[in-house]
Design goal:
The complex is a heterodimer of chains A (364) and B (326). Chain A is mainly α and 364 residues long. In chain A, 76% of the residues lie in helices and 0% in strands. Chain A is globular, with a radius of gyration of 21 Å. The N and C termini of chain B lie far apart (65 Å). Chains A and B meet through helix 5, helix 6, helix 12, helix 14 and helix 15 of A and helix 3, helix 4, helix 11 and helix 14 of B.
Chain lengths: 364, 326
Amino acid sequence: MDKMPKWADVVLLPLISLLLAGAISALVLLATGVNPVAALGVMIDGALGSTRGWGYTLYYATNFIFTGLAVSVAFHARLFNIGGEGQALLGAVGVTLACLMIPWPHWTIALLAAVVASALFGAAWALIPAWLQAKRGSHIVITTIMFNFIAGALLNYLLVEVMKPAGIMEPASANFPPAVHLPNFADMLAPFGIPFSPEAPANVAFLLALLAAFLVWVLIWRTRLGYEIRAFGFSETGARYAGISGTRIILISMLISGALAGMMSVNNVMGEAERLVLNSAEGAGFIGIAVALMGRNHPVGVVLAAVLFGFLYQGGAQLSFQLQIPTEMVTIIQALVILFTGALDQMIRAPLERAFLSLRKARA
Amino acid sequence: MDFFTFVQILDATLRFATPLLLACLAGLFSERAGIFDIGLEGKMLVAAFLAAAVAATSGSVWVGLMAGIAGSLVLAVVHGLAAITFRGNQLISGVAVNFFASGITVVVAQSWFAQGGGTPQLSGDARFAAIIWPGALTKIRELRAADPLTQTYSELISGHAIIVYIALALVPLSWWVLYRTRFGLRLRAVGENPAAVDTAGISVVRLRFAAVLIAGVLCGLAGAYLSTALQAGFSKEMTAGRGYIALAALIFAKWRPWHALWACLLFGFLQALALRPDVLEGVIGLKVQGQLLDALPYILTVIILAGFVGKAIPPRAGGEPYVKER
């Protein structure tokens, strides 16, 4: 019998972690002379108080859904993919090539091509660490970290030496043609007569992210492959006795993970910047770790946690705009969420389990 | 390229290798005891900030150094709590430490000094001064005219901050502690087979905490060196991935102190070369992309990890929390 009900594990634990993270962040704010309640007010107002705020929140959330799903698919196979950042950068290269190489007649076809290209590039970047883990036993955490740095250097090289149009100083690709412009929320909601801020960057890629979340759910819980991935993650030896090839599971789950991280770039490169710049992923690959941990590796949880982090990002931007608090404040919250939900899980879980046990005894 | 340029590059190599070496030895102690530490970067960053901030405020670099070490130790204790006491995932804890450091340093620096997330420039006693050895030349014109031996002595051996010499001395010391003392034997044993150590009546928890705290002190030294000796002050994200390069060096060295020195010198040499593209082009006759030099430590590490050039086998119990009761 479980020590505590499932809802406590799925809802209560992450909420307590979030509260702890929030409390410590509030202390940091107090120490820097800012009223935390006022700061929260600014964040809520800036991120959720207008369609523009929502547009930014959901734009960031779209990035985090992709990277969060990427981390969680790997987690199901008990692989810790820290390489989401590098895979997203390579995905961005894929998107850029797809958008610049071929003169697409309409954004719908371009979107399809961009999705395929970003997924392929992201997966390819995850393939080498996956192969090294499966065949040579190299620790995937270390190799994916190294691949993040290699990706950063590679992108730097590509932008400075190869993709930069002649006569431009800034290391960036050419601007994408207008034909591949993705409709944003204002364009999408206009036919229904719903007004939405046209300056907000949330775009059709958000729907793509939701679709990806649904497909990941189908994959993990409704297919044979997903069952094998979970079995492998639960017990490597057990899976081997059941005839599941470890090499195959490691390769496939990392390829899917890399593809998901790569697809993030459809949102931020094609949907927002409409050109490729240095460090285009801006840390979203790492936020995927916090999102996956917070969302308990379930697509529904990942989507909710991604929206939460989207709120934190947009709210954090407002904080720096209005109260001159550096946006790095969000990084602190992100770190604390990772710490409490990932590493100090036992610290919160143990007393909670004891509380539920004594509650049950008292009732019996 | 003349001999003096060569000596200058070696001199830069030593300066760049020092923070790598300290962080690498930190990782060595921690990982040899079975605690993975990818939080080297974060501990260095916090130490770099606190050392510079306190040195700027107090005017004494030594007070700054103590503050830097203390800050690094706080993060080490958090990592120890998560990894040892609560048996959490050591990698996730390390990731959290790194993000926390990169956030808190900027937020506190901004509210303390309001200089874009950095500290004021340090000068005088707020910085580690170069130690000039007796008889060493200091003027660049005299140095250029001097014979190779004097050049080597004056430029490469003399004229570094004290932490450089401490870092070099720590290599034989770490070797001696790990391979010639009872503590070192137990520390290595707890990273290979903690159950055996436990059976012998020695506390696994205490040994692992000792290792994590040693790592904290060493990362503190590394960070303080960055902001008070190599540079004059803290700037945002100033560790710039050095904690990860140290991690790469540790794997390159296969978790051994002397090899760690050579690996860090090699990676320091690559960093020094990246700053002198003219020299590199002159020697090998073709232009080498700076980005390739940046990425080379990581590429080399992946090749080593892949086992193509001798296999890197980590301590066997690394990353596994020790559960006493069954």
